Amino acid sequence: MSTTQAVYDSLWSELADIKDELAARDWFPGTSGNLSIKVSHDPLRFLVTASGRDKRKRTPEDFLLVNEQSQSIEQTDLKPSAETVLHQRIYEKTDAGCSLHVHTISNNIISELYAEQAEITFQNQELIKAFNIWEEDGSITIPIVPNYADLGQLAEAVAEQIRPGIKGVLIRNHGITAWGRNGFEAKKHLEALEFLFEYHLRLKQLNL
Ligand SMILES: CSCCC(=O)C(=O)COP(=O)(O)O
Ligand SMILES: [Zn+2]
C-alpha cells in the first residue's frame, strides 16, 4: 500500500469515527449534518460526507473526495454534501484540517434567540479553555448568520465572519459549523460549543 493511500485510509477512518461519536449524541436528526476532513492543502482536497444519507449508519459510501471547487474527483454516483462549499471556504480561510456541521435543538434555539445581535459571547465559563483561552476574563464569540437558501451566499456569509479566535459559526434556525486544526480539535470545539449552548438555555429556563 502506498503512503498516500495509507494517509487517505487513516483520514477516512478518523472521520468515520467522529461521525459515529456525533451520531451517538443524536446530532444528525433527519439526515442533517455534514462532516469533512482535509487530505491536502495545495491543491485543496478533502473527504466530505455524501449528501442526503443517514449519517448514523457506517458504510463504505459515507464519504467522497472533492477538489477546490467542491466537485467530486472520483468516479461515483454519490453526490457531495449540498453544503460542501461551506467546508471549502473554511479550508480556504483558516488552518482547519477538519470541519463539522450539526443541527441540534440547542444550537437552533440559541441562533434564533440571538439572531438580532448576530452573535453570542460566553464568559466566565471553564469550558472556554477548550478554545485555548486561559485568561480569567477571557471570552469566546460565535457569530450568527442568516440561513440563506443560496448555498454560495451562505458560504460567503460564513466566510465573512472568520477572523482570529472564531472556531464556529451559527446559521440561524439551521445549525452550526465548527472546525479545528484536526479531527480531535474540531470535535473538541463542537462539543464545547454545544455544552455552552445547553448550559445557557438551561440556566435561562431556571429564570435566574
Ligand atoms: C434534511 S437536512 C437539510 C440539509 C442540511 O442542512 C444538511 O445539513 C444535510 O445536507 P447534506 O446534503 O449534507 O446531506
Ligand atoms: Zn445543514
From TrEMBL:
Catalytic reaction annotation: 5-(methylsulfanyl)-D-ribulose 1-phosphate = 5-methylsulfanyl-2,3-dioxopentyl phosphate + H2O
Molecular-function annotations in GO: methylthioribulose 1-phosphate dehydratase activity
Names of the cofactor(s): Zn(2+)
The keyword Zinc belongs to this UniProt entry's keyword annotation: yes
Binding positions for Zn(2+) per the UniProt entry: 101, 103
UniProt cross-references to Pfam families, sorted A to Z: Aldolase_II
EC supergroup of this enzyme: lyase
Cofactor info, note text: Binds 1 zinc ion per subunit.
Keyword check for Cell membrane: no
Pathway the protein takes part in: Amino-acid biosynthesis; L-methionine biosynthesis via salvage pathway; L-methionine from S-methyl-5-thio-alpha-D-ribose 1-phosphate: step 2/6
Keyword entries, A-Z: Amino-acid biosynthesis, Lyase, Metal-binding, Methionine biosynthesis, Zinc
Origin superkingdom: Bacteria
InterPro entries named in the record: Aldolase_II/adducin_N, Aldolase_II/adducin_N_sf, MethylthioRu-1-P_deHdtase_MtnB
Entry's EC annotation: 4.2.1.109
Domain called Class II aldolase/adducin N-terminal: residue spans: 13-201
Task of the protein: Catalyzes the dehydration of methylthioribulose-1-phosphate (MTRu-1-P) into 2,3-diketo-5-methylthiopentyl-1-phosphate (DK-MTP-1-P).
Membership in a protein family: Belongs to the aldolase class II family. MtnB subfamily.
Subunit annotation: Homotetramer.
Name of protein: Methylthioribulose-1-phosphate dehydratase
Gene designation per UniProt: mtnB
